[in-house]
Design brief:
Helix 9 crosses helix 10, helix 9 crosses helix 11 and helix 10 packs across helix 11. The protein is 50% helix and 17% strand. It has three domains: 69 residues, no CATH class; 148 residues, 2-Layer Sandwich (Alpha-Beta Plaits); 69 residues, Orthogonal Bundle (Arc Repressor Mutant, subunit A). The strands form two sheets. Strands 6-7-5-8-9 form a five-stranded mixed beta sheet, sandwiched between helices. Strands 1-4-3-2 form a four-stranded mixed beta sheet, sandwiched between helices. By secondary structure, it is an alpha+beta fold.
């Protein structure tokens, strides 16, 4: 590609093409000055200008600046792609260490992986990256990329003394930015910090697990930390046959699938309110006696008693 600082003639264009194929870095044809913009030995552009005096010097300085910008952009995308492959587990640990040296990535700092999911299709999926990259991208010390439809990963370089509470606050800020600027509902999870780059894949798996468990046990929460899953992690890890056996023992007469939506909503709210009859009735906007009747009907269907929950 040739960039002219003045409207080129046919002869100028032909000379620029011949110059691009030559081994020279810069050349003058009378008042026509040509300078190559190269990156790692490959010619990317040819700058051309007309004039005398310092024109050639100015073009050479411009070529150096443009070469630096090209190298920066390529390195940024190469580094980002490298981190993405590490997170997704596409590289062996020994390869991770070797390539980290090439990209001059500090292996002594802690990093953690955030998984971001938008809950609806917002049209242009790149909008989320455009919004978050200036705040959380490489210029801000992190890496941000897309992994699948409506799924994004943010690798954060942690500051000294940064705690789980601090990461949760960062997560809430990210969700708020997506809500306000991207006009999309989002949820976020994150794994435990790691000081090894090869450990980012494990942190990512933890974030994915936290997202799945959060959907089940923390549906109202938009930010879920892997190390704060509590009882949900224990229940999720139980084998399915064991869970089915427990349900068969508790629901002796009928399974929970036979309860209608109203009964399930009532029971869910009852548990959310710590088995408090008055609070549950208030949240459901029904009379206390109506709630007791509903719970009694559900208990009869399920073959258990709500007083023994």
């Amino acid at each position: 590609m040739t960039a002219f600082t003045c409207p080129p003639g046919r002869e100028d264009t032909e000379r620029a093409e011949q110059f691009a194929a030559s081994g020279a870095d810069f050349q003058s044809f009378g008042e026509l000055c040509l300078v190559k913009v190269a990156d790692r030995g490959k010619t990317e552009f040819v700058l051309a200008g007309r004039g005398s005096g310092d024109v050639l010097t100015c073009l050479r300085l411009a070529a150096l600046q443009i070469s630096g910008l090209i190298r920066f952009q390529k390195d940024r995308f190469d580094r980002e792609n490298f981190i993405k492959r590490v997170v997704l587990g596409h590289l062996l640990p020994v390869d991770v260490d070797d390539q980290a040296k090439r990209f001059r990535l500090d292996g002594r700092v802690s990093r953690t992986v955030f998984l971001i999911e938008t809950r609806e299709d917002g049209g242009d999926s790149d909008v989320i990256l455009q919004i978050l990259r200036p705040l959380y991208g490489e210029t801000a010390g992190g890496f941000l990329f897309k992994t699948a439809h409506r799924k994004y990963v943010y690798v954060r370089t942690m500051r000294e003394g940064e705690s789980t509470e601090g990461l949760e606050e960062i997560g809430r800020n990210i969700v708020d930015v997506i809500n306000t600027e991207g006009m999309q509902d989002a949820c976020l999870s994150f794994g435990t910090p790691t000081k090894k780059l090869s450990g980012l894949s494990e942190s990512y798996r933890e974030a994915c697990l936290a997202m799945r468990i959060g959907r089940i046990f923390s549906r109202e929460s938009h930010v879920v930390a892997y190390d704060r899953l509590g009882m949900g992690r224990l229940i999720y890890s139980l084998p399915m046959p064991l869970c089915r056996k427990f349900l068969d023992e508790v629901f002796a007469c009928a399974g929970p699938d036979e309860l209608d939506e109203e009964a399930l909503m009532t029971i869910r709210q009852f548990f959310d309110d710590s088995l408090n009859i008055a609070e549950t009735a208030r949240h459901l906007y029904i009379h206390r006696n109506t709630l007791v009747y509903r719970l009694g009907q559900a208990a009869e269907t399920a073959g258990t008693e709500y007083q023994k929950f």
